[in-house]
Amino acid sequence: MAAARRAREVFGRLRALPSRVAGWPVWSLSRPLRAYLILVTSCALAGMAVSLIDMPWKLSQLLIFLGFLACGIVAIESTRAMREVHGTVGRDLQSVWYLAAAITLPPGYAMLAPVPLAAWRLWRVRSGLMHRRVFSNATISLAYGTVALLFRTVPDSIAGPQPGAQTHVLTWTAVVTVCAIIAVWINCALLFAAIRLSDQAVRLRDLFGTRESITADFLEISLAVSLTLVVAVNPALMALALPSVILCRRYLMRSQLVAQIRVDATTGLLNPRTWQREAEVEVYRAAQSSAPLAVAVLDIDDFVAVQQSAGEEVARQLRRDVAAMLTEQLRDQDLIGIFGSREFAILFPCTSIADAKRMTERLRDRIAGESIAIESGSQAGFVFRLTVSIGVAMMNETRRALAELVGAADTALGTARQTGWNKVCIAAEPAADSD
User: Fold this and answer.
1) What's phi and psi for 295, nearest 5 deg?
2) How far apart are CA 23 and CA 28, in angstroms?
3) What is the pLDDT of residues 119-167, one digit of tens each?
4) How many angstroms separate the Cα of 137 from the Cα of each of 37, 184, 224, 421?
């Protein structure tokens, strides 16, 4: 009876399998994106199968590989409770184990390593879509399998299986560093192609060219090369490197979460709450030191009409491009953020009224003189020219709180709108008291 019941359960699951497969989210993707994901994943599986079949199996190498997996699992468990950043390219430092496997073990291990670690993550973390996890691990397999083959083409006099001594250890480390950079480039290129197929408006520099992204890549490459050097000297030393990897992993994931909380997803600028909190600190500091300070509120002229006629997707790109121009034109110490639903707020610390007027007029002229080409959607190929109106308010004896400064700048912005667009208006100073 029990055997028959189990057989019926297995048969029922097999019958339900086609409908479950048909319900996978991957089938709802666009045809080019779905084909690309399947192609990359198939290439990774084929490369993995070929490399594993041709690979000589040795117990010592298998034990080192199991050590890498154990360290990777411990690193995953150490940050399992931390929520991952969605909608961005995450960096969790797992590649440090993949690079070490690619350099110190046969290429088959480098291509195989992401599979058990991804399975463990899916079982323990249970976040993210399955097809995204599978695809990202396929790109990792291809990237580190490729550098494993490239490393073995370098003559032993320059690199080889062991780092050696004196100048050889320097050339060995240099080759490993180049391999790490190549692996990062391959992985980023494969990921960016998929992201671009999903959203044509996404730009490479927004994902991989930011200061935070470059810093994370540098940290990951540096840690991976150091770990590979340690493992090449003696594989047992990977246990000593594990705590450093865990600490760096926790720091990196936490900084990614903090950045996501602070930043507006559409423009990359500070969100309203973060801008207000940090601006209040700057206003308090200026009040204590009697330093000059200005606040500007900027609005895209007639943006509601553009949004209604061109659509939400075009409006997002226009706001993103305007935000990029603001970031390019302003100083590092200037605080730029989103204000309200569609306006931008700028705080100029240690800035006189003349400098604030000059910088805001330069912003106005820069935006008015820039043609913005739409990159995707039904409006792709159309060119927009936007203008902005700006209101500026200076900190003085009657305006010493952020709310008062923003209110005065918003009033000046209203004056700029009423008297004609593409203007900069300065909030009026209070009249001096008469004797």
Assistant:
1) -125, 135
2) 9
3) 887 777 655 557 677 888 899 999 999 999 999 999 988 888 888 778 8
4) 11, 13, 17, 51
